[in-house]
Amino acid sequence: MKYKFLLIMIFLSSCSKWLDVKPQDGIIRDNYWQNKEQLKAAVIGCYASLLDNALVQNLFVWGELRADMVSSTLYTTVDEISIMQANILASNSYTGWAAVYRTINYCNTVIDFASQVIESDKTLTQEQLDAYLAEAHGLRALMYYYLLRSFGEVPLQLKASSGDDQLQQLKKSTQQEVYDQIMKDLLFAEQHALETYGNILEDKGRLTKFSIYAIEADAFLWMEKYDDCIAACDKIILSGRFGLMDGNVQSQWFNTVYFTGNSNESIFEFQFDKQKLNPFYPMFGAANNRFIGAPRVMEEVYGIDITDATKKDIRGDGGSMRATDQMIWKFAGATSGTQLDARTAADSYAHWFVYRFADILLLKAEALAWTNRGTEALELVGSIRSRAHALVFTERTPDPASAIDVSNYILEERSREFAFEGKRWYDVLRHAKRNNYAHLDILLDMVAFNAPGNMQQSIINKYKDVRSHYFPINQYELQADKQLVQNPYYQ
Amino acid sequence: MRIVFICLLLLCSCKKVAIVSNTTDEVNITGYLQLHPDKFSSFLKIISITGDEGFLGVYGAYTAFVPDNDAISAYLQLKGKGAVENIDVQELKDLVKFHLLEDTISTSSFSDGKLNRLTMYGQYLITGASNKDGVTRITVNRQANIIESNIRVGNGIIHVIDHVLQPAVYTLAAMIENDPRYSIFSQAVKETGLYDTLNILPVANTDSSRAWLTVLAESDSVLKNAGFNSYADLKARFSYTGDPKNPDDSLHLYVDYHILYGVKYLADIVSSTSHNTLAPLEVVTSKLSGQTVLINDDTFNGIYEPGVELNRAGSDNAASNGVLHAAMGHFSIKIRNPVPVYWDVANFPEIRNLPAYFGKQNYPFALTNMPKDITVAGPSAMQYTVGSTYVNGDFLQIPLGGPNRSAWVELRTPLLVRGKYKVWICYRTQKQSGSSNNVNQISVDGEPLQRTMNFTTSMPVSSEGEMEAQGWKWFTDPVSNGWAGRQVGTIEIKTTDRHLIRFTTLQGTQNTNNLDMIHFIPQDMDQLYPRFKTDGTPVPRP
């Protein structure tokens, strides 16, 4: 009898708090995903992860260092110089993709668990839920699109994993599979994303229907689906929500588009601010900066009117870079026009510009060029150039019927318009690989010009192997995921 | 009882603790090869025959290019030998030495040219990358591809290669002689006696400066295009003394001019702007234009002189004492008479590219963005200064002297033709404060000139002739006593090239060292004219 009583006592006490193993200083998943506020917070968290220093640093390095717009300084790191000189090994820290997969994992988490919320929070409508999901899908697509262009074949992680940057043991998917997944995500996002959140900050800092179209347009062009690209661009152009900022007064234009950001021509930007500064000050702005603009940027890309200093391409001196010391002005500059003052470390909050309206116009122009609509393409280029007060020196008059001539001109114009925005390498690669690498010479000419004289031939020969256009998988990833196989060029 | 005792003993022996006596389990080169006998058993056998096994197994810093088993069996087949034992030991020793360098060199420091360390055999290895059927491999000596790179072991780096590397066997002389395309050039090499110069192995050469040489050879077709159908034509055109063996004979000099000091692959040639030749004090200039390697492609005195291309496909041929390149055009020593150079130092590409500043406003340069042809010691840089006129309305203001100013400034001159020049420093006299002083020694390529100059000294004004005798002149038009030309001495420029002129402050320190022009005027020419207007127009002697 006594024993029985004792047993009951134990049973009762097990219900009390001291056997409860839930953490008291955090939230566990079962208690989260209860209401729509939590859902929104989780989605915003995905965007917050974009502000990770490593991520934008990678995006800049991946998009620019192998191209011809950036020069090294005395302070450039060994890994960075190695990329510039086509000596890329799996031990290079910039081949790490953890920062991108971290954001992907946040998106996966939202995608996996958001649907629980609708059961517990009756005020959440299906429409709202879908809109949130659209953002997660769209962001995941954008991240995979960066990976596709940088690494080619990557593992498709589509389920949330417990560790932050930990992958399940996954095999690489082919480029086509990655692309298909991107398009699948974008299709969902396109249907459900909102057109506006009702304020500028969120319209430029969160994915809207239009930013989804922009990613689509870019990805369609990458895969040479020109009609689809034009259709996606037209949806943005015809919406009437975006336009090119006036370029008549360089200082105002620079202030609106680059210093403050979120201008009317912006479609999607990473929203650095005073609370979360970007990592660009030590990269571009400080006295011991690691990257400066290449000398050819002023001399050849924008051109210099020796006789009249007032005649200048607003995107050149004071737009993309400060000609006097080649500082990368887009991210390091505070003022433009006649007085060029640099940002201080505390002001280093320039946004990362993912898509601007000018990009849409030029993406469309490129697609038009390859669908026998060269004249329309050149009109679009003309509108970009006249806004920017481009010099006659950089004007070309290609035969509208010649797709390659028009598209080469567009490539040049893109280098002016998007200098240092992390697009140059992808642009050159897209042009080079078009029609099964029919125009590899575009890429080879670029690297030949850029290479140090004593390594030029080796570098050219390396780039002749098209497998070298994609990064190796970092050695750390290979150890962590035994299913991964190193890309053949780097084996 | 006895049985139990034995059992106890056995138990004890099982408990023995292994004492770790080595500090690391990292293997050395030999150790690594032994770990992978499937790939390297043949090479291991070679180094055990040659006795190199030992030193590759102990500490050091080596780079080993290791041919795998397939590579060595292909080599044996080529040699017609059944096994490595059948090859002469000395030959194997040379072979192994040719695969080893006494330094650790990873593929990231490979270039298009030679590795900057000799192999232990005493010949350079060249690296590169080649693309075959869309697949790029890093190559060594154009003989082997690297199949596994940068394997770090305790005493260095291993690169696995798919062919055995074989040292060059011909000297430059033999290589030219053996190539039927160079029959005319080869004959010229022989007739001038330079064949012997090109036929000595580096180890046997008593003149260490000529141990390694580089030849820019002209093929018969190149010479024919230039109108020389035979050696006789060449001799008739160049040989004035009739004895090509005479070092002063122009044919001798013509061949000398095609031989550069040192072993210079194309990658080395483009890394420097000029190269000394065996022709005394004559240089060839070089540049990379796009992907084209050009020599003697210069603008001289405002006139562009197109250069000669070195054919990439026919060049970079390694010989046992140097490297042979193929010139795609005929070139010879250019006979030039010294011409005066009136050099406006405040006119250089970096400032011209800043139209907002050039000719309009001052621009302070920082140490981080100095023009490429002007170097300062630091900590101070210089300022491009506009507005107080003279030539082209601008000058350079270069703070000099210690301790917070640079101790010296060095400028690269325009192309100066070989000859004797008087050097005039043309400056605006200015004292930063009443007591300021700034005495400088001027040197050209490290050779000090006879006189010093002082940026704060006003010139003594008297008649033109008297002033010239004292080493002063007006260089402006109209003349201005505040703008002085100071003759700092006569210099013999030995090579037609761009040279370095340096101002080293001996005494005093100030900011306002206003350098406007530097004149290099051949000593037998008019030193006082032309003078220059503010817009840069030269005014000749009336």
From TrEMBL, chain A:
One of its GO terms (cellular component) is cell outer membrane. Keywords: Cell outer membrane, Membrane, Signal. Signal peptide: none annotated. Residues 337-490 form the RagB/SusD domain. Transmembrane segments: none annotated. It is found in: Cell outer membrane. Belongs to the SusD family. This is RagB/SusD family nutrient uptake outer membrane protein. It comes from Chitinophaga oryziterrae.
TrEMBL record, chain B:
Gene3D superfamilies: FAS1 domain, Galactose-binding domain-like. InterPro entries: Adhesion/Biosynth-related, FAS1_dom_sf, FAS1_domain. Residues 1-18 form the signal peptide. It comes from the Bacteria. Residues 27-165, 169-331 form the FAS1 domain. Keywords: Signal. SMART domains: FAS1 (SM00554). PROSITE patterns: FAS1. PANTHER family: FI19380P1, PERIOSTIN-RELATED. This is Fasciclin domain-containing protein.
